[in-house]
Automatic annotation (TrEMBL):
Domain Cupin type-2, first and last residues per copy: 44-101
Signal peptide: none
Superkingdom field: Bacteria
Protein's name according to its UniProt entry: Cupin domain protein
InterPro entries, A to Z: Cupin_2 (IPR013096), HNL-like_cupin (IPR047263), RmlC-like_jellyroll (IPR014710), RmlC_Cupin_sf (IPR011051)
Gene3D superfamilies named among the record's database cross-references: Jelly Rolls
Pfam families: Cupin_2
């Protein structure tokens, strides 16, 4: 059986382990925050079970899921299942996390607009207990 890499972007660099748990993630910056557009865009690949810490974005964030199955959860709300083609609009300063389901790689494009208001504020990790007891 042949397998094909459906990701059109390079895998990128390993994400910092202090902000990701449960596995490895890779980030490829597609558009750096380096001009008057005030926007950063990255492609993020999560191994199964890998997720980022709770965090927020001062300028908000848009996730475009391109492959696999994952989760998105805002603090105090049930998690949402995400699949290829889903788009999540995250308002500024909403505490949340996202990552892969237990049995699937998960890939999304992360768009960070309004970076003049801050790109990301990292918080505590999503614990194994929180992850294993998701109420969906």
């Amino acid at each position: 059986m042949e397998t094909f890499n459906t990701n059109i972007f390079p895998k990128g660099e390993k994400a910092p382990s202090e902000y990701f748990s449960g596995g490895t993630a890779w980030i490829q910056i597609l558009k750096p925050n380096a001009d008057e557009l005030n926007c950063q865009i990255g492609n993020v690949i999560f191994e199964p079970r890998c997720r980022n810490n709770w965090h927020s974005h001062g300028g908000g964030q848009i996730l475009i899921v391109t492959s696999g199955t994952g989760f998105y959860q805002e603090k105090g709300k049930p998690a949402q299942i995400l699949k290829a083609g889903d788009v999540v609009n995250i308002p500024p300063d909403i505490i949340h996390w996202h990552g892969a389901s237990p049995d699937s790689e998960f890939i999304h494009i992360a768009i960070n607009p309004n970076t003049q208001n801050g790109i990301v504020e990292w918080l505590e990790p999503v614990t194994d207990e929180e992850y294993n007891n998701l109420s969906i």
